[in-house]
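Quick one, C-alpha cells below. Sequence please?
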C-alpha cells in the first residue's frame, strides 16, 4: 500500500507538484521577508548601540534627564573606580567603555585667523589613541574613513563628511571648539581635522565630530569624569535578554549607591538602561514583534486557503480512488489519515526546498545587503545606509511550521468531504 501511494504521488502531478510549489514558495517568501525585516531591526539596534546608547548604559540620572542639553556638570566622577566596579560585578563577556558627550560651536578660521564659517556641533570623546583600538573597530572607523587618516596624536579630530562639506573643512586644517566647561566656565581649544568619516547615518554625518576621550577631559575640564559608560554584549545574546541582564546589574548598583565613591556629589544617582529603554527602541521592538506575528498569520491563512482549494480539486479528481480504497476495507478515518500523511510528506519536501531558497536569499542580503541610504536620509534615525538580512533559527521556524501546518490544515479541511459521501456514491462515480 505504501509503495502504491508513493507511485501515485510521483506519477500524478496534481497530487504533488502544485501543493509542493505552494509550500515551497510560501516558506521561501516567509523566511526571506522575516529575515530581511529582522535584519533591518537588528541593524538599527546594533547601530544605535554602537554609535549612541550601548546595549547597556550606566549614566547619571540628572544628566540623562537633560541629555539634549549635554550638561557636562552632571557628568559622573570617579572614572577609574567605576570601571573597576563594572568589571567586577558584570558578566566578563560585557565590554565596557567610557565616553563623553559634548556640544560646542565649531569655528573655522581663514588664512588671517578670522572666522570663515561656524556651526553648532555635537561630538563624542572616546578612546581613539590606545593600542587596543576597541572603539575604532567597534565603530568601523577605518572602513568609514573616506578621506584623511585616523588620529594618532592628541588634539586631532575626525569630522562627519557632510559636516566637512558644509563648513568647507580641509584635511589638516585647524578648527576651534567653543563651549561650556564642566564647572560652567568658558571652554575653548584648538584641534586639527585629520579625517572625514561617513558614519552611514545622515544625522551624524551632518553634525558629529570625534575626539579622544582624554582630549575631551582636558578641553572641558573633566579630569576623571565621563558622561556615559556603555556596555556591549556578544551578538549571540538575544535582544529579549537585555532587560534581565540590566535588572541583575541594577540590583548590585543599588547596593553600591549606598556606599558611593568619595568624588560623587550628593545628587549623583547613576542608573542602568538597556538599548530598549532609549530612543524609543522598546516600542519599535514591540511593533516588530507584532508585524512578525501578523505576517505569519497572513501567510499561514493564505497557504491554508490555497492548499484547501487544491485539496478539494484533488479530492474531486480522486473520488474513484477513494471509492476503491473504501471498498478494499479502509475506513473513512484511515483514509483521511493517509491523505494527511501524504500532504505532510509533500509539505516537508516543500519546506526543505523553501528553506534552501529562502535561506540563500537571506544569506545574500546578510553578506551583500541593499543600499537604501537615500530612503532614510531625511529620517534622522539610526539606520545604516546598507540594509542587510539576518539568518536566524527563529526565522526558519516561522517559515517551516506554518508551511507544515497550512498543508495539513488544508488537507484536513478538504478531507472532511470524504465523510459526506457514501461508498455506493463513490462506486457509481467510479463506474461512470
Amino acid at each position: 500500500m505504501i509503495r502504491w501511494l508513493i507511485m501515485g504521488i510521483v506519477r500524478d502531478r496534481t497530487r504533488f507538484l502544485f501543493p509542493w510549489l505552494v509550500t515551497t514558495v510560501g516558506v521561501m517568501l516567509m523566511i526571506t521577508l522575516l529575515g530581511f525585516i529582522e535584519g533591518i531591526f537588528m541593524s538599527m539596534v546594533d547601530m544605535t548601540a554602537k554609535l549612541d546608547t550601548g546595549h547597556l548604559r550606566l549614566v547619571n540620572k540628572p544628566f540623562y534627564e537633560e541629555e539634549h542639553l549635554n550638561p557636562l556638570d552632571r557628568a559622573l566622577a570617579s572614572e577609574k573606580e567605576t570601571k573597576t566596579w563594572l568589571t567586577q560585578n558584570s558578566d566578563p563577556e560585557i565590554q565596557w567603555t567610557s565616553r563623553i558627550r559634548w556640544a560646542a560651536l565649531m569655528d573655522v578660521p581663514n588664512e588671517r585667523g578670522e572666522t570663515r564659517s561656524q556651526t553648532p556641533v555635537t561630538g563624542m570623546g572616546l578612546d581613539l589613541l590606545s593600542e587596543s583600538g576597541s572603539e575604532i573597530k567597534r565603530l568601523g572607523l577605518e572602513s568609514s574613513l573616506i578621506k584623511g587618516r585616523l588620529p594618532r596624536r592628541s588634539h586631532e579630530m575626525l569630522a562627519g563628511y557632510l559636516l566637512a562639506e558644509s563648513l568647507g573643512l580641509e584635511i589638516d586644517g585647524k578648527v576651534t571648539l567653543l563651549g561650556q566647561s564642566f564647572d560652567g566656565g568658558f571652554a575653548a581649544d584648538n584641534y586639527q581635522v585629520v579625517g572625514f568619516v561617513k558614519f552611514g547615518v545622515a544625522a551624524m554625518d551632518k553634525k558629529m565630530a570625534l575626539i579622544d576621550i582624554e582630549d575631551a577631559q582636558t578641553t572641558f575640564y573633566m579630569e576623571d569624569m565621563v558622561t556615559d559608560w556603555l556596555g556591549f554584549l556578544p551578538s549571540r545574546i538575544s535582544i529579549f535578554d537585555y532587560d534581565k541582564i540590566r535588572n541583575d546589574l541594577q540590583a548590585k548598583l543599588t547596593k553600591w549607591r549606598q556606599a558611593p565613591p568619595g568624588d560623587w556629589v550628593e545628587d549623583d544617582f547613576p542608573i542602568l538602561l538597556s538599548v530598549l529603554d532609549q530612543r524609543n527602541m522598546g516600542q519599535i521592538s514591540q511593533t516588530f514583534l507584532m508585524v512578525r506575528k501578523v505576517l505569519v498569520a497572513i501567510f499561514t491563512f493564505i497557504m491554508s486557503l490555497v492548499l484547501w482549494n487544491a485539496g478539494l480539486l484533488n479530492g474531486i479528481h480522486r473520488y474513484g480512488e477513494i471509492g476503491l480504497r473504501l471498498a478494499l476495507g479502509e475506513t473513512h478515518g484511515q483514509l483521511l489519515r493517509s491523505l494527511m500523511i501524504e500532504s505532510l510528506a509533500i509539505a516537508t519536501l516543500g519546506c526543505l526546498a523553501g528553506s534552501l531558497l529562502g535561506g540563500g536569499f537571506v544569506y545574500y542580503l546578510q553578506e551583500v545587503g541593499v543600499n537604501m541610504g537615500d530612503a532614510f536620509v531625511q529620517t534622522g534615525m539610526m539606520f545604516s545606509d546598507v540594509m542587510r538580512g539576518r539568518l536566524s533559527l527563529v526565522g526558519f521556524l516561522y517559515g517551516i511550521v506554518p508551511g507544515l501546518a497550512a498543508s495539513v490544515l488544508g488537507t484536513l479541511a478538504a478531507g472532511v468531504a470524504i465523510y459526506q459521501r457514501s461508498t455506493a456514491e463513490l462506486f457509481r462515480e467510479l463506474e461512470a
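The first strand starts at residue 56 and ends at 60. Residues 377-381 have pLDDT under 50 and may be disordered.
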